[in-house]
Amino acid sequence: MRFKDKIALVTGGSRGIGKAIAQRLISEGAVVWIGDINEEMLQATSKEIGTKPVLMNVTDEAQVKEAVDKILSEDGKIDLLVNNAGITKDKLLMRMKKEDWDAVINVNLTGAFLVTKAVIPHMIRKRQGAIVNIASVIGEMGNAGQANYAASKGGLIAFTKAVAKEVAGRNVRVNAVAPGFILTPMTEALPEKVKEEYFKLIPMKRFAKPEEVASVVVFLLSEDASYITGEVIRVNGGLYT
Ligand SMILES: NC(=O)c1ccc[n+]([C@@H]2O[C@H](COP(=O)([O-])OP(=O)(O)OC[C@H]3O[C@@H](n4cnc5c(N)ncnc54)[C@H](O)[C@@H]3O)[C@@H](O)[C@H]2O)c1
User: Fold this and answer.
1) Does the domain made of 7-181+210-235 have the CATH classification 3.40.50.720?
2) From the candidates 149, 198, 227, 240, which is the catalytic residue?
3) pTM above 0.90?
4) What pLDDT score was predicted for residue 202?
């Protein structure tokens, strides 16, 4: 029970990787809040896995503050934060509209900034906390058709390293996990032929299960990683090393 008496917030935790992280944290004793923009999924997932739901659009500063205040008033603290909410709007640069660029940067990068900024003063006050940002292999290696997504995730890695340096002296650790291709509703919908093409590029010849990302995230959140901060751990089956 590595997370007994710990209070966690996982953004975008209603499905996919975030849901797997929430489940894993619960199984190790944490009280877990999931913050999500999709109210229906938020309620259904919370009922299913035993999380506490809080409606939160990570791009809306006032709503983020309100959500964090709700958690603090109910549970008194936030020990663990996972900035997982993320979207894609893939298009080749020549066809990418400014709206596509702004939407992805706003959720994936500015969203993590807003939630971190709202939570971190409380961690600093307690002299204790751990944050994991969910980046992507694309943030390090790039990908045609994903200039907005690659920039957001590369930015999130740089953000992780900068904030880690700011708060390390207050016993707050900030790390990133960079997953490769993970089996979620998004990737499950890919045609078999496209998947086969991806498998050729991945030395392990398969996509990962969300649980294989979750286990690394909870390691970084736990005291087992007590001397790790500002780090990026790749979980990509050897795709990019
Ligand atoms: N699936 C993959 O292969 C993969 C690979 C690398 C990185 N990632 C990253 O992992 C994270 C989770 O991905 P996933 O595949 O589980 O995605 P998903 O689409 O299954 O889940 C994303 C969740 O975020 C929520 N969300 C979206 N916009 C939001 C907002 N503005 N505010 C609050 N919540 C919002 C959604 O409602 C959803 O519950 C993302 O950051 C993604 O970029 C995914």
Assistant:
1) yes
2) 149
3) yes
4) 97
